[in-house]
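Budget justification note: compute hours in this period were largely spent on complex prediction jobs such as the one shown. Inputs:
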Amino acid sequence: MTIQQVESGLASYQILDVEGNLVGEMPDLSAERMLALYRYMRLARAFSDKIIALQRQGRATTFGSLVGQEASAVGLAAPLQPQDWLATSYREIASLIVKGVPLATLVYAFRGFTPSDWPAESRCLPFQVVIGTQMLHAVGLGMAAKIAGDPVVAVGVCGDGATSEGDFNEALNFAGVFQAPVVLIVQNNGWAISVPRHKQSAARSFASRGEGFGVPGELVDGNDIFAVYDSVQRAVERARAGQGPTLIETLTYRIGAHTTADDPTRYRDPAEVEAWRAKDPIARFQKFLTRRNLLDEAQAERIVQEVEEEINEAVQEAEARPSMAPDSFFDYTMAALPPRLQEQRADLLRYVKRKD
Amino acid sequence: MQMTMVEALNSALALELERDERVVLLGEDIGANGGVFRVTERLQQRFGEKRVFDTPLAESAIIGTSIGMAVYGLRPVAEIQFAGFLYLCMNQLVSQAARIRFRSAGAFTCPLVVRAPYGGGVRTPEMHSDSLEGVFSQTPGLKIVLPSNPYDAKGLLSSAVADPDPVLFLENIKLYRSFRQDTPEDYYTIPLGKAKPVQEGTDVSIFAYGAMVNVAQEAAKQAQQEMGTSVEVIDLRTIWPLDEEAIAASVEKTGRAIIVHEAPRAGGIGAEITAVINERCFYSLLKPIQRVTGYDTPYPVPGQEDYYLPTPAKVLSTIREVMEP
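Corresponding output:
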């Protein structure tokens, strides 16, 4: 049995079909840029596999697989300009990489520490785990940009499960009422841990839910990098031009487990996973690039090796970084520590010394 | 100038809007209507809809979008119409606003003020009188301010807006218009985290905040008249951070302590202050610490609320108890 991720018969916006054939109008991307996107998708998959491997060895904490969603995560971040903001869930690590969060910073975070070098200038909020919450942050960032009169757009991303949360609905409502320069994106990967899409919502599609908030919505093939890029690009520029928010649903699939703590064989049919593997976003893009003579087998292999090396270097760098100091969780509780926290910190340090 | 607390808060907000173009006010009915208690009266007319604006009726979104605005670099001052509705934005306030600095190791901060009216005694419907400061006091990263008079309200609100971190600013409904006080029209601040002795005394210390400061003072007056007891009343003004120095100094002097608050007793600020006294100056105590608080029941309906709230009579009776030889 396979799940129903969207009402049957609803067509999602597509530029590359499953076989990598051009079926729509290509976005305006140079050959170099297309290869860069391909490389980011490869990097995302390798990064996900690497962190999961590290987790199995006790070198990383819980991690949610990114596999299968590379076109969606890369495609949604690629159209953003440096001044634009991005507020994501933990499933969009690839988006953060594209927007400029260094790999070693992310690896250090997945070692179980707070990186001290989270780049504020990347304008990526650190991912957080309370589902749907960040959508309101994105809308607030957009509202602020509008108040300040800056040509800045904010993008909020969540998964299909998050659409059931109040904050998701409140975010769409505020975005509509304030005509905030925001793009709200739902990565519909079919599953919220073990709960399938059709048990999450009776709506025809998530994109169609924008209608009720006066926010235009678009259903996009989330495994088609061109479609995602083009749809988000149009929405971002609409927002920048003062034409208000957009809701985008990227139809994709979580090939991996929810996280390293999850066993999907308990709740889903392996045949369904296999059916989606056949729609692999990387393979699809590679077929297109190969057909256009932009990429050959050897180059693709080299890219795979390169990203592997890049990730290994990042892991090395992150593992060479010192662990956070035992009392460092006091550092960023507030700008200045009140006496009580200073005392508590001193108290902790007595025990740390005693242990040594 | 003689101001009510509503006028003092309005004056503080007007000055903030004037001083700093990053300051924006948002909430339900705060624009044309000036807020249900008129704290934001005329501010939208004066500063425009871009700086002072009504939001749809959604508390979580008011705080959630304020977080985005604060991270962006604005200084949002959000009004939640009644503190009882803060539960609707618990996640945004507790799990998000108060953790942005922590989560990002200081890459992003959240200078946000959340104002909300609270407190009983004015015959409001359900959930309009509840005191939630104890609930929020277990939120590392969030400061909690509860002024007891117009002068403090203005100076503390200005400090809250200037603060680099989120501040929950709880305004007692009964105090909004109950008295006027000489309050400067100009800008001034009162530091957060500093208690104020409103009445010096030598026999017993009463720790209170918000509307309970007046209740404590009234009881102190009667105690002086009826028993010749000298009561010290400390207005805490901020309950996070708590001015532990001031609490300990007072108890070391008097040897007796009473804590008064409207919120329920269990796990409340009174319990916290009791623990602080135990830790810091237990051997100064001549008598067990007492609490005069709301009861551990839901806040009652208007017809019954007078029985629920701490009164001068309840506080006076407790003073008598701790003064027994």
